[in-house]
Amino acid sequence: MGNTDENLVSDILAGDVEAYAILVKRYQKPIFNLMIRTTSCEEDAFDLTQEAFVRAYEKLERFKPSGRFFPWLYTIAMNLALDFLRKTKTREIKKTELYEMQKDLSEGSNPSKSLPEKIDAERVNAVLQDIPLEYREAIFLRFHEGMSIREVALSIGISVSGAKMRIHRGLIKLRRLLSIENSQET
């Protein structure tokens, strides 16, 4: 069989435990990035990433072969992240996660970008930190990960219309914060 997510899941369910290592390697970075954005602490992010993969492995028989593996895994990870925030009683994400988000966004960026474009991207990233996690993740999945609205909905565990609303409201909050920042600069 090939190395598609679906084939790997079938192999794992048939007893090939080693096939799970391929899935972990494939999705370790985006799950870790979610956790570092949530916790702003590498140690907590590593622990939560590991826990997400353990939980996914334990629930693998519930994965529907008709679906895509990454949104299913991301839902598990997102629920862990939200549980972590509830337990630590902090909905405020620290500014230190800006570094990781900037790094993520710059990895796919064009090195010939003009300075004003880079400054604008940094301002957007900085302002994103002031948006509640549920909106920020919807925007991040849609525009950084390139997921469809349906995939965003599946990943977050909400309806398609709920995903559209989160993205829309998140963008409104982002625009509002950017316009406030712009008016303070002038």
Key terms for this structure?
2 domains; elongated; mainly alpha; Arc Repressor Mutant, subunit A; single chain; 9 helices
Architecture overview:
The chain has 186 residues and is mostly helical. The protein folds into 2 domains: 91 residues, Orthogonal Bundle (Rna Polymerase Sigma Factor, Chain: A); 93 residues, Winged helix-like DNA-binding domain superfamily/Winged helix DNA-binding domain (Arc Repressor Mutant, subunit A), CATH 1.10.10.10. The protein is built from 9 helices and no strands. Helix 2 crosses helix 3 and helix 4 crosses helix 8. The N and C termini lie far apart (61 Å). About 13% of the residues have low confidence.
Main sheet record: none
CATH architecture of the largest domain: Orthogonal Bundle
Can you tell me the number of structural domains? 2
Instruction: Fill in the CATH topology of the largest domain.
Output: Arc Repressor Mutant, subunit A
Q: What general outline do the C-alpha atoms trace?
A: elongated
Please tally the β strands and state the result. Answer: 0
The radius of gyration is 18 Å
Summary, kept brief:
The protein contains 9 helices and no strands. With 186 residues, the chain is mainly alpha-helical.
